[in-house]
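Agenda item 2: zinc ion complex prediction
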Amino acid sequence: MTADILIRNVRPFGGQLSDLYIRDGWFAERGRQKAAVEIDGGGQIALPGLVEAHTHLDKTLVGMDWFENRVGPTRNERILADRRAKRELGIDARRQSMRQIMQTLAFGVMHVRSHVDVDTEIGIANIEGVVETRDKVKDLVDVQIVAFPQSGMLVREGTLALMEEAIKAGADIVGGIDPASIDRDPVRHLDAIFSLADRYQKPIDIHLHEPGDLGAFCLELILERTRALSLQGKVMVSHAYCLGMLDPQRQRSLIDALAAERIAVMTVGSPSAPALPLRVLLQSGVVMASGSDGIQGTWEPWGNGDMLERAKYLAQRNGMTNDADLKETAGICTFGGAEGIGLTHYGLLEGCRGDLVLVPARTLAEAVALTPQKRTVIRRGQVVARDGMLCGGPQHIG
Ligand SMILES: [Zn+2]
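Presented output:
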């Protein structure tokens, strides 16, 4: 139970000035009584908790020494470097996940889906580390854990059994990766992960970097299996670069099928990968989510995990510049992400959980374009960050 709180003079998602009221951690109708705590929002933009729909909490180097990146450009070189770094740099999944979560909570990120490596070298140690963090921060941030076969699943014997162990150890979602180019057997890869998800009644989230026709073929296999197992609303495809590389007709039919099966697509708007047809996806009703992917890792040195900044990148990457466009990309980093990762009671309306971020800007577009840092973060009716600084609670570990 928390004291009730009244937040005056804010613009919910850039709308009209109004007051928001939270009672016992939920947005509620304001009665006549005086609220125990009152905050004057001064016309700031109120957003629901930002949604990080795709990151790698177990591999970030946040707070560690700078990693001098000499890794070659291919995916295999990066996977090898990634595995080596885990051994040599002593990347502790529990400590690093806590660091990233605390860093991004100050931006207002209150919902995080993280892929966490499972492989035959580390087993499920990273899963156990992030599960520990998830339990510690549950009052501040919702964390979902994807059991992720980064180094391949079928090509590394024993990985599938470890994925099942990961689920038993607390992973929430079954992951997958490039079923054709890494595992070289898309049907068997997808059958294996869909069957695991079906047995444990878990959602699925697949990294699909595969290009053009190969990616499209894998997407068709994903669509077939989603339909056959009635997993509508439970499957996310991360990256799906192929959608930006097809002829318009094939692109259109895949997008319509994704919308029909309610398969969400996560895009980070990476400048080094083909851009997705974001407008077509949105107009077609595909649930679009976004994420930071790895921040400050061995794959890429970029990123701070701010999902409002991600909304800006998405707009820049897709040539979206007007105010309505920026509202769309802010929507992807909030409501779209929430739907994509299956959150309930999300938003700023009565009956939703009392989570919000106040951003010092006059319009939503200004908030996205300028990404002001001095934000106030309220979680379940309690102020957890002011002026972009955490107020207290669990501190960085290690
Ligand atoms: Zn990823």
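Discussion summary: The pocket of zinc ion is lined by residues 54, 56, 115, 207, 293 (CB under 6 Å).
Owner for follow-up: CH.
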